[in-house]
Structure formats: structure tokens, C-alpha cells
Write a structure and sequence with these properties.
The protein is of the alpha+beta class. The protein has eight helices and twelve strands.
């Protein structure tokens, strides 16, 4: 069991575990940059789309958002930046393009709607929804909070890799130590995950909260 202050990436680097699968590529890249971990993605898994969930007592659509409204986003750098990019795509403001996929609030260069950005731990965002106008919540936390990814949201990340230049950063991955990236057992783990049965289970169990995105997953004929 990992201690409360041990991240899966540190545990992997320290050889406490052999693989992990909890993060998207943007988070992985940032953690490697900050901590110097010798770890690497060995297989794509899924995307947990960020969506804007509305406080139904206050608004029904993006167009209803007005100056002064509070929008809650994740507090961590990579998912907070991702949330800001989503709000930019929704037309609420413009971000400094030089900041790429990891902007922060200070990188907002122009407000179309002078919203207030409220940062909170990702798992708490659904609880904050009654106190804000909207919240940017990922699929996993929305599912845990029993929010329907379609009926309860008003805007979603673009999951088309052809039109979203940041799509690759959204993809969650199975990660190993660099020295073990060609381990044949680990390759079997990846192959066992990347199957139509797993894709069907994700669809059936999570109702759109998780989307399979490994190579070939888009070609499956899911029921």
C-alpha cells in the first residue's frame, strides 16, 4: 500500500510498484520535468473528458454565463491549465498562446465574460457546484458524483485528434520505468487492456465518462 504522500510516479520510480495507470500524458510530462523520474508511457488507454457542468439553478447554457459568475476548476497545474483551455474554447476568455497546454489564471489576456476562476482539488469540484455557476470536472470525478456526462454538462473537450492539437496530451497511459519499457510481461499487460472487450466494458459501465483511445479503438463496433 502506498503512503498518503507517495504518488504513483514516485512509487514507480522507487521500484515500489512495477506499472501505473492513472495519468494523462500532460501530467506525466510535467511530473517527469519537475522530479526527473526515469519513467515512460508504454501504452495508451483512455481519455476522461473534461466537461463544463452547470449549476442548473443558475444557467442552462454557456451563453447564460455573465460577468462576475464563478467557475470552479482543478487546482493542479496540468488539469487546471487543461480546464482553462476548455473555458477558452467555450468562448469565455482568451489565453496567452505562448503558454501552450499549461496556462494559469494570470495567462488570461482578454475576458469575453469577466468570470471569477475558483481553484479546488479535483475530487471536490462536484461538491462546489451548488456554490458556483459552473465547474470543470473530469469524467472520473463526474461519474463518482453521479453526474451524467451528457445531460448534466453544457460543454465538452474536443476529442477529435484531427481538429484538437492538444488531443494527444489528454490520453491516459500505462507507465513503466524506462529500463523496463520493453519488458515482455508489461507488453502483455498493455495488449490485455487494449481489447474490444475492455472498450465495451468502459462504454457499458461508465456511460461516456471514459472513452477508449488506444490505436484501433475507434474502429470497434460497440453495442
Amino acid at each position: 500500500m502506498l503512503s498518503a504522500n507517495t504518488t504513483p510516479n514516485r512509487a514507480l520510480s522507487d521500484k515500489e510498484i512495477d506499472l501505473n495507470a492513472f495519468q494523462h500524458k500532460a501530467y506525466l510530462a510535467n511530473d517527469i520535468k519537475r522530479n526527473g523520474y526515469k519513467i515512460v508511457a508504454i501504452g495508451d488507454t483512455l481519455v476522461t473528458p473534461l466537461r463544463i457542468f452547470n449549476n442548473k439553478q443558475k444557467i442552462k447554457a454557456i451563453a447564460d454565463i455573465k460577468d462576475g459568475d464563478k467557475i470552479a476548476i482543478p487546482a493542479d497545474l496540468t488539469n487546471g491549465g487543461r480546464a482553462l483551455k476548455l473555458l477558452e474554447a467555450a468562448g469565455l476568455f482568451t489565453l496567452n498562446p505562448d503558454k501552450g497546454y499549461v496556462p494559469n489564471k494570470t495567462d488570461i489576456t482578454h475576458f469575453n465574460k469577466k468570470v471569477q476562476i475558483v481553484e479546488a482539488e479535483s475530487g471536490m469540484l462536484a461538491n462546489l457546484l451548488p456554490d458556483v455557476t459552473a465547474a470543470v470536472i473530469n469524467g472520473g470525478n463526474a461519474f463518482t458524483a453521479k453526474l451524467d456526462p451528457y445531460a448534466d454538462s453544457i460543454f465538452s473537450e474536443n476529442l477529435d485528434p484531427k481538429t484538437n492539437p492538444y488531443f494527444g496530451q489528454l490520453v491516459n497511459v500505462i507507465v513503466a520505468r524506462e529500463a523496463d519499457k520493453d519488458n515482455p510481461v508489461y507488453k502483455k499487460v498493455v495488449a490485455a487492456y487494449q481489447t474490444q472487450d475492455v472498450a465495451q466494458t468502459l462504454k457499458d459501465a461508465y456511460k461516456g465518462a471514459y472513452v477508449p483511445v488506444w490505436p484501433g479503438a475507434a474502429d470497434y463496433k460497440l453495442k
